[in-house]
């Protein structure tokens, strides 16, 4: 499948949007004289950007392999396929292979990278190898999304002991434990949590600033949802809840947490099973306290950059609304997929989809945007004013319509918003206001270089380019 990308930027202040396209290179990289865009790396000759991924009891599917650029765009870690193997490449060198690989993760400062490859056995079990800066540091039966510290001395991820799929392709065991790796001399030592019957393994753990503890969400032996901290002599339970934890996020300083739990209606007195499919009942908790909202569901929380404020999406009678710090904007018919406040708590940005339809079983899910059809998406932002116990939006602005919008980022001064959008079946763009660059083959994510420049790492054919967009005043 061909994937193209565009980058867009919205202006939240007096400055306008941006256009053009330069890029940052790696050592020995090619640079375009016309635009300043730079080639960072290329897939070696004889290797491919995609492979045929095997599916149990299903035909194999063409799958493009993941890649990740460093925050400054000077490096890219990627996978490439050759015959039936997937190879991990770091600094242009092959560091290991398997049959699949987890998306590479750079530290926030871009100085260290973690990669993981898996070999799939005939009995449908897996053996994973974990690499830090190109060197093998751990072996696991399964590896989830990971995090690595800025100093490269700590990392964390969930693993599933004795992981194996049954003949239908479903995991035989759901149990999981968290791994915290810490460097001791030239080697890493692993601290492993207790084994939980189930955990939020597709969510990245939070890592403390000094790298000595990691936090994540799981279920204990009594089916309670628990927020646990790993790193000491035993796991520390930070919070417990009766519901099933479905989503967990942590503030940038790791001092705050928010999670979404599913209320099991069957356990509610007087509950009668509906004749048709209904939306799940979801509740949001921030720092251990339930956010009191008169809604059928509350989810998709996001903290501000300075961790002082949070925003979320809620649904009432199949109408969507947004909230900030517990205050609500009245809901409307338009679907909302994400919302985030600025660091002052006076402005908010959100993704809104108008006149579309959505599969009910993916309602208020981080992947919901992938199942929406018809209608048009808009990147929106406004000033948020608290009054009469509610939240009023003023000076609202909307982007041009797109078929889909996937994610967005504030500029460093938070006066602008850049986002990734899709037009047509496969063309992606990076945009800000009415300005855009693209389409590209594939896109990693968007990064702000400064208040006036946004960048994106993209793959075009076998080449990895760092593309930038300069804001026009």
Notes on the protein architecture:
This protein has 473 residues and is mostly beta strands. The strands form 10 sheets. Strands 1, 35, 36, 37 and 38 form a 5-stranded antiparallel sheet that branches. Strands 2, 3, 39, 40 and 41 form a 5-stranded antiparallel sheet that branches. It is globular and about 60 Å long. The two termini are 37 Å apart. The model is unreliable at 1-29 (pLDDT under 50).
Helix tally equals 0
Please state the structural category: mainly beta
CA-atom Rg in angstroms: 22 Å
Residues in helices, as a percent range = under 10%
Tell me how many strands there are.
Answer: 41
Mean pLDDT across the residues is 87
End-to-end Cα distance, whole Å, is 37 Å
Subunit organisation of the chains: single chain
Shape summary: globular
Query: Mind summarizing the main beta sheet?
Result: 5 strands, antiparallel
Residue runs with pLDDT of under 50 for 5 or more positions: 1-29
Please state roughly what percent of the residues sit in beta strands, choosing from under 5%, 5-15%, 15-25%, 25-35%, 35-45% or over 45%: over 45%
């Amino acid at each position: 499948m061909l994937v193209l990308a565009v980058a867009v930027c919205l202006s939240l202040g007096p400055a306008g949007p941006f256009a053009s396209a330069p890029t940052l290179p790696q050592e020995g990289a090619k640079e375009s004289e016309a635009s300043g865009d730079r080639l960072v790396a290329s897939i070696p000759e004889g290797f491919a950007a995609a492979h045929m991924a095997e599916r149990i009891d299903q035909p194999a599917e063409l799958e493009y392999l993941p890649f990740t650029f460093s925050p400054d765009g000077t490096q890219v870690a990627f996978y490439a396929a050759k015959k039936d193997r997937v190879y991990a490449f770091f600094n242009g060198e092959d560091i290991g292979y398997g049959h699949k690989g987890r998306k590479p993760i750079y530290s926030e400062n871009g100085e260290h990278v973690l990669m993981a490859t898996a070999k799939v056995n005939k009995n449908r079990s897996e053996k994973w190898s974990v690499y830090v800066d190109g060197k093998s540091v751990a072996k696991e039966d399964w590896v989830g999304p990971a995090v690595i510290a800025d100093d490269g001395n700590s990392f964390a991820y969930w693993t599933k002991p004795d992981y194996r799929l049954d003949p239908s392709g479903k995991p035989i065991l759901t149990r999981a434990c968290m791994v915290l790796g810490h460097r001791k001399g030239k080697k890493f030592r692993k601290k492993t949590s207790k084994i939980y019957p189930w955990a939020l393994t597709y969510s990245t753990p939070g890592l403390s600033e000094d790298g000595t503890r990691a936090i994540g969400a799981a279920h204990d032996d009594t089916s309670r949802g628990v927020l646990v901290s790993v790193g000491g002599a035993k796991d520390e339970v930070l919070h417990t809840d009766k519901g099933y934890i479905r989503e967990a996020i942590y503030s940038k300083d790791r001092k705050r947490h928010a999670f979404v739990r599913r209320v099991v209606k069957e356990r509610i007195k007087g509950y009668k099973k509906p004749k048709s499919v209904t939306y799940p009942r979801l509740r949001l908790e921030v720092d251990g306290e339930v956010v009191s909202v008169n809604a059928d569901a509350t989810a998709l929380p996001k903290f501000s950059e300075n961790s002082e404020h949070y925003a979320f999406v809620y649904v009432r009678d199949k109408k969507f609304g947004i909230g900030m710090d517990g205050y609500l904007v009245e809901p409307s018919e338009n679907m909302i997929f994400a919302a985030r406040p600025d660091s002052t708590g006076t402005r908010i940005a959100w993704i809104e989809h108008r006149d579309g339809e959505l599969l009910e079983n993916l309602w208020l899910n981080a992947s919901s945007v992938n199942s929406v059809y018809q209608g048009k998406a808009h990147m929106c932002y406004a000033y948020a004013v608290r009054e009469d116990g509610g939240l009023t939006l003023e000076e609202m602005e909307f982007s041009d319509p797109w078929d889909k919008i996937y994610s967005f980022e504030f500029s460093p001064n938070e006066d602008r918003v850049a986002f990734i959008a899709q037009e047509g079946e496969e063309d992606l763009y990076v945009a800000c206001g009415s300005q855009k660059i693209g389409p590209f083959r594939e896109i990693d994510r968007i990064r702000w270089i400064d208040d006036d420049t946004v960048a994106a790492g993209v793959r075009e054919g076998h080449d990895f380019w760092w593309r930038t967009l300069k804001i026009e005043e």
